[in-house]
TrEMBL record:
It comes from Ephemerocybe angulata. The keyword Coiled coil applies. This is F-box domain-containing protein. Residues 40-67 form a coiled coil. The keyword Coiled coil applies. Keywords: Coiled coil. The lineage of its organism: Eukaryota, Fungi, Dikarya, Basidiomycota, Agaricomycotina.
Length: 608
């Protein structure tokens, strides 16, 4: 590099030394530094100017590049479909700017206009009733009103929650007016709140105003600790929404009132779910519900341990209910596809009504069944209290086995959920042999009984019974002129879910492999075509491995091991209890709004 003499300091001979400058040299040094600092300042100014020019040029380039963005060329219809896929998948949309659809309105003006003009984005909402000062509450209610306005005339799916302890006086009067206006737009309405608050919101309406309501869920979450606390049963029965002209689905949760006293148009009801400890219908009442609902498609009930209330006692309370058929005569429910029953087995000496007796369900595809017996009620608080429950019945007297045997049509059941203590093992296997269309089998292992006379046994022998056996072809036969031999149970089974079991990993692999191999074979005439297992979920009866639980919320932590073979997904799960690291108390503030309060999440483990 050439030597640039102009850059050499006049003081270069003193640089890096301990020499002491004279007074005249110091004067020259100050003059030299002043000139150098001026040059540096000029360079900084030039750099700042160039930096600003570079920033402006870069921003201009980025702005022009955005003109080439593919999303600009998307048709609005396609962009709207993408917006719809942005909605929460496991819960209803909420008033939260960090989630769609509100998030979509904060991107740009064009997106905001498109999103706010699409009623499909605003047709569902979970709303936690706000509390606090009147301006704060009014602000939150205005947000809800604008949401409902964006839905335009589209019927909404609405969930409203008010956590305990609450009563109407806890809220400002504007709450009732605003929520009533929104609720009247709901096709599906879930109300989780004390009945007093529910009545305060809904009573100032007429049945005709609920002209779009088709599905309603009412869940009372009031805390009534004393037996002397009066429950406003008549208040809930007087709600005008029960007389909605299009109401077809009722979900009754934790309501301390007689469901049978509701002024429903039972002939138009297609789905009923009654799950309240304070009201459990007897078998006679349950059959009366079936008789009154000829178009019923889904029923969920927990039956009472008593069978002492005559049907006539509640028939008169509603003109829509009629007496059930004479015992012994068939009760045909042509449209019922889903049945979820917690049944009870009462002492035969009392001649109780049996819910399943002579019940014909030709369209039944999903069944969840459990049976309460004297064995399960052994841990009651007062062991001397007389009960009508009887021990688990023998095979010839078991109500579920008799129900399956008595079906006069081909059983089309595709999904069966059963508790391990509901059936003796022989009865369970007999029922499986009569379910040729069964695709999903779920066994809840709530008890650990090992007696095959009292419970289902889940071990490798059970898997062998579900495995296809080789077809025997007589000697000299071509295989086309002889009847097929039995080849195993449930040929269309593709999913098995059980809790704690006695399966071994080898037994599971052999089971899946056998089903997979048979599914690839061409079956002989008259033999069923087997399906391979695509999903298998079990909890092995083994000690859990050592692992550190990271979930500090407590409860049960799970460690899953997944195996893939022969096209099946095999989940082996080990569980371990973890103590919560957080204090159990929750500090309620006097003024709050939590959009997710009371929000229900879908279960990822639900099978499609």
């Amino acid at each position: 590099m050439p030597d640039d003499r102009s850059n050499i300091s006049p003081f270069h001979q003193w640089l890096g030394t301990n020499s002491i400058l004279s007074g005249q040299d110091l004067v020259h040094l100050d003059s030299y530094l002043t000139n150098q600092l001026s040059t540096l300042t000029a360079l900084d100014a030039e750099i700042d100017s160039l930096t600003q020019k570079r920033r402006e040029l870069s921003e201009s380039i980025d702005a022009h590049k955005r003109l080439r963005s593919p999303i600009r060329r998307l048709p609005k219809e396609l962009l709207l479909e993408i917006f719809i896929f942005c909605l929460p998948g496991r819960h209803q949309p909420i008033l939260d700017e960090s989630e769609a659809p509100l998030l979509l309105t904060r991107i740009c003006k064009s997106w905001r206009i498109l999103a706010m003009g699409a009623p499909a984005l605003w047709s569902s909402l979970h709303l936690a009733i706000p509390r606090g000062s009147e301006p704060f509450v009014q602000f939150q209610l205005d947000r809800c009103s604008r949401w409902a306005t964006c839905a335009k005339r589209r019927p909404m799916t609405l969930s409203i929650w008010a956590g305990p302890p609450t009563k109407p006086s806890d809220f400002h009067p504007v709450v009732s007016v605003a929520l009533k206006k929104i609720a009247l737009k709901a096709r599906t309405l879930a109300l989780t709140m004390p009945i007093e608050v529910l009545s305060w919101i809904c009573l100032p309406t007429q049945p005709s105003e609920w002209d779009v309501l088709e599905r309603v869920t009412v869940n009372d979450i009031a805390i009534r600790r004393n037996l002397s606390d009066e429950f406003p049963s008549q208040m809930v029965l007087d709600l005008p929404l029960w007389r909605a002209p299009r109401l077809g689905e009722v979900n009754w949760r934790a309501i301390e009132a007689n469901f049978l006293s509701l002024p429903l148009n039972f002939a138009g009801i297609e789905k009923i779910s009654v799950w309240a400890d304070s009201f459990e219908p007897s078998a006679a009442e349950a059959r009366a519900i079936l008789q009154a609902c000829p178009n019923l498609r889904s029923l969920q009930l927990s039956l009472s341990e008593m069978d002492t209330q005559p049907v006539q006692e509640f028939v008169g309370r509603s003109t829509k209910l009629t007496p059930c058929p004479i015992p012994g005569s068939p009760l045909l429910m042509s449209h019922l596809t889903t049945l979820d029953i917690m049944d009870t087995y009462l002492k035969p000496s009392f001649k109780p009504t049996v819910f399943l007796r002579d019940l014909q369900l030709p369209a039944l595809s999903t069944l969840k069944y459990s049976l309460g017996t004297l064995d399960e009620a052994a841990n009651v608080e007062d062991p001397d209290e007389e009960t009508l429950l009887a021990p688990i019945p023998q095979l010839e007297d078991h109500p579920f086995v008799l129900f399956i045997r008595a079906q006069r049509h081909e059983i089309l059941l595709q999904r069966w959920m059963v508790t391990v203590g509901t059936l003796p093992h022989a009865g369970f296997m007999e029922c499986l042999s009569l379910l040729p269309h069964l695709q999903l089998l779920e066994v809840n292992t709530g008890v650990t009984e090992k007696d095959p006379l009292e419970s289902i046994i889940l071990d490798d022998e059970f898997l062998k019974a579900l495995s296809p056996r080789p077809q025997e072809i007589p000697e000299g036969s071509t295989g086309t002129d002889s009847a097929p031999s039995p080849t195993g149970f449930c040929p269309k089974l593709r999913g098995l879910s059980v809790g704690k079991s006695g399966f071994t990993l080898e037994g599971l692999e052999n089971f899946v492999a056998a089903r997979y191999e048979r599914s690839l074979q061409t079956q002989a005439p008259g033999s069923p075509q087997y399906s391979s297992i695509s999903r298998l979920e079990v909890i092995l009866d083994e000690s859990p491995p050592d692992f550190v639980a990271r979930d500090e919320r407590g409860a049960t932590c799970a460690l899953e091991e997944m195996f893939l073979f022969d096209g099946a997904i095999l989940n082996l799960e080990f569980r371990q209890e973890v103590q919560s690291a957080y204090p159990p108390a929750f500090n309620w503030s006097s003024e709050y709004y939590y959009p997710t309060a009371g929000l229900a999440y879908d279960n990822d483990d639900e099978w499609e």
